[in-house]
Amino acid sequence: MFRVGLLAFLDRSFAVKLLVSRDVQPENSIVRVGDVAFGDGNFVVMAGPCSVESEEQLMQCADVIASSGGQLLRGGAFKPRTSPYEFQGLGEEGLRLLALARERFGLGIVTEVMSEADVDLVAAYADLMQVGARNMQNFALLRALGRCGKPVLLKRGPSATLKEWMMAAEYILASGNPDVVLCERGIRSFDSHTRNVCDIAAVPAMKEMTHLPVILDPSHATGRRSLVTPLSRAAVAVGADGLLVECHPNPDTALSDGAQSLTLDQFRALMMELPCRILKS
Amino acid sequence: MFRVGLLAFLDRSFAVKLLVSRDVQPENSIVRVGDVAFGDGNFVVMAGPCSVESEEQLMQCADVIASSGGQLLRGGAFKPRTSPYEFQGLGEEGLRLLALARERFGLGIVTEVMSEADVDLVAAYADLMQVGARNMQNFALLRALGRCGKPVLLKRGPSATLKEWMMAAEYILASGNPDVVLCERGIRSFDSHTRNVCDIAAVPAMKEMTHLPVILDPSHATGRRSLVTPLSRAAVAVGADGLLVECHPNPDTALSDGAQSLTLDQFRALMMELPCRILKS
Amino acid sequence: MFRVGLLAFLDRSFAVKLLVSRDVQPENSIVRVGDVAFGDGNFVVMAGPCSVESEEQLMQCADVIASSGGQLLRGGAFKPRTSPYEFQGLGEEGLRLLALARERFGLGIVTEVMSEADVDLVAAYADLMQVGARNMQNFALLRALGRCGKPVLLKRGPSATLKEWMMAAEYILASGNPDVVLCERGIRSFDSHTRNVCDIAAVPAMKEMTHLPVILDPSHATGRRSLVTPLSRAAVAVGADGLLVECHPNPDTALSDGAQSLTLDQFRALMMELPCRILKS
Amino acid sequence: MFRVGLLAFLDRSFAVKLLVSRDVQPENSIVRVGDVAFGDGNFVVMAGPCSVESEEQLMQCADVIASSGGQLLRGGAFKPRTSPYEFQGLGEEGLRLLALARERFGLGIVTEVMSEADVDLVAAYADLMQVGARNMQNFALLRALGRCGKPVLLKRGPSATLKEWMMAAEYILASGNPDVVLCERGIRSFDSHTRNVCDIAAVPAMKEMTHLPVILDPSHATGRRSLVTPLSRAAVAVGADGLLVECHPNPDTALSDGAQSLTLDQFRALMMELPCRILKS
Predict the structure, then answer these.
(1) Cα–Cα distance list, C26 to A142, B49, D91 (Å)
(2) Positive or negative, the Cα torsion across A46, A51, A53, A57?
(3) Which residues are D183's β-sheet partners?
(4) Residue A51 DSSP class
(5) Could you tell me which residues come within 8 angstroms of residue B1 by beta carbon, excluding any fewer than 6 positions away?
(6) DSSP conformation letters of C55-73
(7) Half-sphere exposure of residue A51: CA atoms within 13 angstroms, side-chain side
(8) For the domain B29-273, what is the CATH code?
(9) What is the DSSP letter of A260?
(10) What does each of the 281 residues of chain A score in pLDDT, given as a tens digit?
(11) Which pLDDT tens digit goes with each residue over A200-223?
């Protein structure tokens, strides 16, 4: 009686002819960000503070990330905040600090772009352009990123189905940019115990359907520092291509997302057990 | 033991000093769109096709809407679609057809703007600028609409809390535009029986917290034609300030959202029982 | 491309041969509880306290309910509570008080049965046997109620689909009891602003698929007193067959669910505007 | 502005004095099922068919499970099914087959009890009494299991919060039975791509709050065979105390849940990589 329902779980007919689909390209896409590759079996760790707050804060993070085997530096210069009265990021000054950290520590930069109008500005600094969860279906932004010349990190929307997420990536590919990395970051659910529910099965489920790399953001997925390390291990276990993780020299004073940021010591300890290839020496 | 939980339902402390809050402005805001007023006790019906498809289709709709007491004409010229390969709207040609319908039938125009880059273009035609559910937290777009000089219809995101929705409106007000109408259009839930779950209680709950007008979109909230009329009655029952409803001369051939569009006869029948003030004669 | 999805909204094939289905019985079922009928176009109001707490509390409620046109008295004697340390109800003493109120005020009694072992005991007192939301898929209880000889009020589970809810009713009918009234009481969602999300569209959607009466519980659906009256109006607007509503002489001292209970004055005011046929004179 | 919300993620005040709480008992509970121990650092694999269908089917499973290091045999004799017309299990005949498999292969038995009336019957055969997700808040059943003299496997309800799940366990402990194992089996969400969403973070989050063992059911959590192995690895990664996994000699002919059952070869391959201590030799 419910066989149709069961079959629906397995239905991929919507994806048959999409550029993002494994039916069109069976082998993994390799997305290169400088000398870092996503999708080739490597496990890439991107880390850093939620917001770029100051030169000192950022350099402290970058130093620890580079020396412990992290491959890319994340940090928000333009911050999407629920309230217009919360800290909105340092803007271009934040981008300049990220570029300075890249120069000093040799780490590529991941940072969010929130507006079509900022695509050129952010692309002038960033190595990997991040689309936040709230903008997953900002189609004008996706099209602009399809023409930006830089690889894109596309976060899943908080209530996006896997189909919708694939389709959002399809907008970028269809606009001319094949270099998209997908990032599961938790979905909205009924229990406020964690900030979001980490849909860990989405990682292998997406990798069945698409050839694009898929990574996990355990920080937003849980909202709680103590859960970040176990979830990072789970990311490895399910075959994710990497992690996007928040760390901060002093999380209790962070201007955003302190509760989910690892301390730098916790980050170092996490790196000791992850299967990252150390590229910087 | 769970008293704290119960109190949390009633917590409005986040809203104390917001421009959108009733704590700041106890009386209703009246948002004027031409000679139509939202928030003054009137029940405003905005109707039309999901997408503007052709002059004939749009004029047939506009004729019936105007003659049956509808006050504004809705129609999508820029369409947010899950897939890049679905019909994306007629663009500026669609806006021109809407303007033509306004001229012929005296109906103000509601239409969606999907991109900051299109704000000026859309504002040159529209009387009420619609922000779609997917863009509720596209903060760059919200800020641009705060400076556009036209009133804004802000749809609730499919998984937005009431707080997040109020905060999204706050972005527009804080950017200089006090004329915002809020639209409940269903939230994402676990049952695919209806397209979304119509959170009807959100209408009175929002009106307790904010002085802005709140309307209902029963078409997207249910996705099913047969449920649109009962939900429209419910909108009146809970004190909504109006409706945004889809109708089409021939829903079965619609390029988008046919299953949820009323036929023109069904729309006429609906209007007979709604408490609209007939403004056009 | 998504036509299949749209059709899925309308799929009723699962229901074709069910006893509860309109395909099997096109006309409404009339469920009689004493001289009260559900499903014949009448709008039935069942009201009373969440928990029976004392004779005085219950009689005060019953007096107001009877004199303002309410038709059945609700009150919990066995209470399902999240914690084992919360008030669990008065048990059989509560049932005796309900019977006393019936005698004095001529109101039939609705009360919850939580356990197969209690079915006979509760059936000895109750006129309508309530299955709580947590027990919607307690199939052993449903089968026992199929043989209990009394009509059943079946609440929707907090995350039950409409199909699952119909199937739960089917268990009762298939066990020999055709007298089932369905009750929408809100579903679980992501926003804690209201206790549950009232899925108002479920009322007409269920009535399309099943011939059984469908009523609304606006108290549990919202968890907030101020929203109960607007939602009660919405129940009438969408064609519900009645209401199950909580009221209390002094909600602030209630042993359970005080925040969502109407005062007796609020209840009287609500009754003034509902289309109930006054049966008691 | 949202600090209160962030703190709420970490709030455990509700749990302070519960029997299940780590505040009351900081060290792990060890729950023994025959010579198998949960909670002592061992990783326990329980496997078998969704439903006991025949002697041949069950013995084939048990043989492979025992020889590959599985420690307990699962199999449903009483099956909770959405429709009353679906296969309901073999009942006591199923229990007898399970006991026969125990005798032959030395595996303890896990099986579901759906009704208070069946507690004694099931306890006469089972080594570990399973409470299904639909019955997590069937408080009468929980109390009966508190007095049954056997350890209990308590599945999380499909929309239960972590607090509600802990409270359900508290009912069992408060009724006199300290031997409870908790099982995450996926929660209900908006995407039908997987049957449920596996809330993997619930495992470490629960283990922070309670001293009871917590295991994962990757079969129900995903509903798809291809995702069971990656999710099993994730269970190890996040510190789960074990797995409950479905396997079947021929999943395509299974009377229930075939799509999520591993073949026996897939199960054997999974066992090769799990950190189970082989107890049977």
Answers:
(1) 50, 33, 36
(2) negative
(3) D155, D215
(4) B
(5) C83, C85, C86, D14
(6) HHHHHHHHHHHHHTT--EE
(7) 20
(8) 3.20.20.70
(9) G
(10) 233 333 334 445 666 589 999 999 999 999 999 999 999 999 999 999 999 999 999 999 999 999 999 999 999 999 999 999 999 999 999 999 999 999 999 999 999 999 999 999 999 999 999 999 999 999 999 999 999 999 999 999 999 999 999 999 999 999 999 999 999 999 999 998 899 999 999 999 999 999 999 999 999 999 999 999 999 999 999 999 999 999 999 999 999 889 999 999 999 999 999 986 443 33
(11) 999 999 999 999 999 999 999 999
Residue with tokens 């119960």: B6
| 3 state SS of B191 | coil
Compute the 3-state secondary structure of chain B and give helix, strand, coil in percent, each to the nearest 5.
40, 20, 40
Q: Do D117 and C116 touch (CB under 8 A)?
A: yes
Contacts of A192 in chain C (CB under 8 A): 192
Quick check: A236 and D237 CB within 8 A?
A: yes
Q: How far is B2 from chain A (nearest CA, A)?
A: 15
Pairing of strands A44-48, A72-74: parallel
Cα nearest neighbour of C133 on chain D:
D137
Count of alpha carbons within 13 angstroms of residue C210, beta-carbon side:
32
Average pLDDT over residues B145-173: 97
Q: Which of C19, A137, A225 is nearest to B79 (CA)?
A: A137
Pairing of strands B36-38, B44-48: unpaired
Q: pTM here?
A: 0.94
Question: Which tokens in the block code for residue C66?
Answer: 């009877």
Which amino acid does the sequence have at B86? E
Non-local (6+) Cβ contacts of D64 within 8 A are: D247, D264, D267, D268
Strand partners of residue B36: B33
> Residue B197: helix, strand or coil by DSSP?
strand
Q: Which of C48, C211, C28, C27 is nearest to C128 (CA)?
A: C48
Partner residue opposite A140 with nearest CB, options B81, B114, B174: B114
C interface with A, Cβ–Cβ < 8 A, is 1-2, 4, 13-14, 159, 188-190, 192
Q: Which CATH number fits domain C45-272: 3.40.50.1110, 3.90.226.10, 3.30.70.890, 3.20.20.70?
A: 3.20.20.70
H or E element, residue C152: strand C152-155
Pick from A83, A227, A238: which is nearest to D201 by CB? A227
* Interchain contact, B116 vs A159, CB within 8 Å: no
Q: How far apart are CA D52 and CA D65, in angstroms?
A: 15
Coil vs helix vs strand at A110: strand
CA B193 to chain centre: 23
- Distance, CA of C133 to CA of C142 (rounded, Å): 12
Min distance D71 CA to chain A CA atoms (Å): 23
| Closest to A45 measured CA to CA, from A10, A80, A69, A78 | A69
Q: Are A182 and A176 in contact (CB under 8 A)?
A: no
For the stretch B2-21, pLDDT in tens is: 333 333 344 556 665 899 99
Task: Count residue pairs from A and B with Cβ separation < 8 A.
Answer: 68
**Residue of B1, B14, B188 with shortest CB distance to D14:** B1
Per-residue tokens: A204: 């292998």
- Measured CA angle at B47 (ends B45, B51), to 5 deg: 155
| Domain residue ranges in chain C | 45-272
CA distance B233 to C233: 10
**Does the domain spanning A34-273 belong to CATH 3.30.230.10?**
no
The C-alpha atoms of residue C136 and residue C153 are separated, in whole angstroms, by 10
User: Could you tell me if the ipTM is greater than 0.95?
Assistant: no
- C13 interaction partners in chain A (CB closer than 8 Å): 4
Superfamily of domain D42-80+87-272: Aldolase class I (3.20.20.70)
Rounded CA-CA distance C169/C182 in Å is 8
